[in-house]
């Protein structure tokens, strides 16, 4: 198998470890979000749920284009919500329905995309300093969420973290990201 070489590494590395986050302009971060959203839209059109969408599973090339990787936990969607008892995902990015082993749809990926939006908005690690077990309990049982920033992107993040049936589609997210162009976090 031959794949594209992604020179910049993962989005997680670029934001949190490379020392380059100050070089990520607001417009560049929005473009990255659009790249991820378009990729997710393609995945969902093929009836695939990623289930482990996070910044570490988004790779960045020299042109700063972002592509989704690591489909090891993905599942093919059916007409009804899927129930899968295998553990999936990384707690800081996981949708509550996945944490609770409840039936899920592609909307679990939208929740995770909201966490990536939060990361690119704040340039911070989600749930930094909180042990994963506490994150799991807080998100699944207490309804806790990261502090939501002000403005249109904050409202979009909040909508991505709503109940699954109320979460926006990738198409709606792409449209709403246009409203964020001139309102940085």
UniProtKB/TrEMBL annotation:
One of its GO terms (molecular function) is protein kinase activity. Residues 1-183 form the Protein kinase domain. InterPro entries: Kinase-like_dom_sf, Prot_kinase_dom, Ser-Thr/Tyr_kinase_cat_dom, Ser/Thr_kinase_AS, Ser_Thr_protein_kinase. GO terms for biological process: signal transduction. GO terms for cellular component: cytoplasm. Pfam families: PK_Tyr_Ser-Thr. Keywords: Kinase, Transferase. The keyword Transferase applies. This is SERINE/THREONINE-PROTEIN KINASE EDR1-LIKE ISOFORM X1. It comes from Salix viminalis (Common osier).
């Amino acid at each position: 198998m031959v794949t594209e070489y992604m020179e910049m590494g993962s989005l997680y590395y670029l934001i949190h470890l490379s020392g380059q986050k100050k070089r990520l302009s607001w417009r560049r971060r929005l473009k990255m979000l659009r790249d991820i959203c378009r990729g997710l839209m393609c995945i969902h059109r093929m009836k695939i749920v990623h289930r482990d969408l996070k910044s570490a599973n988004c790779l960045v090339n020299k042109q700063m284009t972002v592509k989704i990787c690591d489909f090891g936990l993905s599942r093919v969607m059916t007409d009804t919500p899927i129930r899968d008892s295998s553990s999936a995902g990384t707690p800081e990015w996981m949708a509550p329905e996945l944490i609770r082993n409840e039936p899920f749809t592609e909307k679990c990926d939208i929740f995770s995309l909201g966490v990536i939006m939060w990361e690119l908005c704040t340039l911070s690690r989600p749930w930094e300093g909180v042990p994963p077990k506490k994150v799991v309990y807080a998100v699944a049982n207490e309804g806790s969420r990261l502090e939501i920033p002000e403005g249109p992107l904050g409202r979009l993040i909040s909508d991505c973290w709503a109940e699954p049936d109320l979460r926006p589609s990738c198409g709606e997210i792409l449209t709403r990201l246009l409203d964020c162009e001139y309102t940085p976090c």
